Amino acid sequence: MPNAQGRRLVGKIVSALLEQDYVSGIFVEKARFGDLPGALSTESIGIGGGNAAPPHPAIVVNFTSRKIPDCKLALTLCAAEIADTSLQEGQGMHGSFSRADTWNFMAARGPDFRKSFRDPLPASNADIGRTIEKLLELLAPPRGPLAGRVLTEALSATASHPLPEVTTRTESSKPAANGLQTLLKIQVLDSQTYLDVAGFRDRTLGLDTP
């Protein structure tokens, strides 16, 4: 556990970050530093607490993202992001918690998959691996909660099955002195949790979209 001086230092850093316009959402490891106004816990996004061997970050910062003016493409293709990188426009950057970075395109083709099916359910990279394992009959029991799920709704063999129910929720921090709150939108399907978008209102692309 950090000492009182360390907790005060983290509090001062968070207070300073809350004043910066390039910041849109702050996460602090609650187990070590407590519940700070304006910030959610890193535990809520799966990178704090627990007994993992790698050290946990004390603070995680989400960069501001906005819609590019006059962009005629889909919202997720019109993102401008403030980030600590030398990359130029169009070179790719995944440093924000906006829907431009968390809502990615995935496609599958073959006799095992439904034809012309657009999957409305949340999916992740981990789900792709589990689905391939299932099709190759290599599926093993999952180890831990981040193993992913089989995308059964996209398979030809289960085309007649009803779609499972998805629940949604929004977590919000206590408001900071300047009124800012870190918000986190989540979808849950079976035992899998999908983190959709997070940040401050009006500073993260997709956060204010239903």
Estimated radius of gyration: 19 Å
Helix amount: 10-25%
Reported for the largest beta sheet, the result is:
3 strands, mixed
Overall 3D shape = globular
Characteristic key phrases:
three-stranded mixed beta sheet, 4 helices, 8 strands, globular
Quick recap:
With 210 residues, this protein is α+β, with helices and mostly antiparallel strands. It has helices spanning 4-17, 30-33, 99-102, 125-135, and strands spanning 23-28, 39-41, 59-63, 65-67, 79-81, 167-172, 183-189, 192-199.
Structure write-up:
The chain contains four helices and eight strands; from the N terminus they run αβαββββααβββ. It is an alpha+beta fold. A three-stranded mixed sheet has the order 2-1-3. The model has no long low-confidence stretch (mean pLDDT 90).
Fold topology:
Layout: H1 4-17, E1 23-28, H2 30-33, E2 39-41, E3 59-63, E4 65-67, E5 79-81, H3 99-102, H4 125-135, E6 167-172, E7 183-189, E8 192-199
Parallel strand pairs: 1-2
Antiparallel strand pairs: 1-3, 4-5, 6-7, 7-8
